[in-house]
Amino acid sequence: MTRSNSNRRAVYLTAVGLLVISLGAFFVVRSFGSEAGADGLLGGGSCDDPVQVKLSTTPDLQPQLESAAKSLAAKGGEDGTPCLQFTITGASSAKVAQDLASGSDQRPDLWVPDSSLWVARADDGESIPSIAVPSVATSPLVLVGRSENFANTSSWLGSFGGTQPALLDPLGTSEGALPLLAIQAERAKTSASNTQVASVLVPLAQRLGSMAKQYTEVDGPLSKASADGSNIVVPVSEHSFVKYQEDHPEAQLKAIVPGTGTLVLDYPVVVTARSNAEAVSEAGKALAQEMLGDAGAQARDDAGFRDHLISPLGAGRGVGDISQLTKPTAASVDKTLQSWATLSLSAHSLAVIDVSGSMAEKVAGSAKTRMQLTIEAAESGLKLFPDTAALGLWTFSTKIGDDSADYRKLVGISKLTPAHRGQMLSQLKSQTARVGGGTGLYDTAIAAVREVRSNYDSSAVNTVLLFTDGKNDDPGSPSLDSAIQALGRLRDPARPVRIIALGIGPDADATELNRLAQATGGRSYVARNPTDLQQVFIDALQSR
Questions:
Q1: Which of 52, 266, 351, 377 has its CA 20 to 30 A from that of 115?
Q2: How far is Cα 403 from Cα 173, in angstroms, rounded to an integer?
Q3: Sorting pLDDT into bands at 50, 70 and 90, what band is 46?
């Protein structure tokens, strides 16, 4: 709505807001009202001074809103119909949310995103936009793939297991964000553990995060999913699936909703004007009423959108009746997307494994030693990292390296090419506990942090993965307080290198490991039963 410009205070984006990809906006602008618009469409002629309303919407819904605006304009001034002229612009929901949050001058009066999850993310520090109409259309999230890839449809998490999920960018698209939120929302029904969720999401985030370009359109992944022998499944909106089917009738794809239910794209009408909000809200309600009326129902259904009541599409298209998962809160959206943003960053890590004498001890209730279980956990962990991750390997005890150092450098930090990955696995499998060897923990931790800092990668998460079953017992090493001070001096908030400490077994000193990790801004974990180490390792990666 036409308004005077007001001064805006400086606004800082959230960490995840900064990570949202600024998708190239797809702008198509048309005016609909009682005066000649950009495309020459005229209204009823009885409104001499229509209210000017700027509206931004997701490009998929733009034709339906344009049709409603044209119909409303034709009635302007008759039987109490308001005199309105809409200028409609198409842009991605993530782009508009980012513009609003940053205080951009590109601010519409009304906004119809594809999902209400973006509304809280459009907070500019002064106010969160208000919702005038909860929904003018809907489309449930569905999972699309070849029939043979749906052996397990009990849940979103289960459906992802044994397949290769291809998500659209979760930080820039609703169709990418909603599957992650669905996995969290369904836990109230499935009681899935953190470890079960992480075992699926950690490798998925690493794999998708390593892509040169994230998926932002459905055609690419759906085309791959339809190929013979493909095990790719793609979460998209029912609308996207129906349109893809119409454009590619030869594609051997089906859509399902997992047994736990699904989340829905809800297309709310949001008031984003800084002034005259009440008048703008009424304009939005008038447009929504026209959009939801009988005249627009068939056109909306033909376009593959459900009504605001989520009624099934006609002619047997789509997935029919659905059950809904509980809509996520703004806090859960923030938490989930922040976690994904961290997980999807590439890794630049040095794994440092204890080979002191105590690692040769047998684990109670197992035929394996602590050393064997640690190596197995490290091997499994290695599989979670994509080829674009960079990893290296050291071992430590006391006086086992060059110049009697407590650590031995086995494999330098480098990208996980097939050759480098093979070298890491070969070295891991060849390690044995050093009889009589002590635990030179402090010197090793300091040296490992220095090593990662020396070839820091600003585009990745830089960490030291420290595995040990005990506490420092090297009489020639500095004290714990001195080690903490040394790590503190190495700490640089602009170039963080964090220790992720993993204690193994009943002798691991949780307090000591926690202090070492915290000195670098990292975390520590202890698997009192070494057989739980693989689960602890996955938990550690998830919170890196």
A1: 52
A2: 54
A3: low
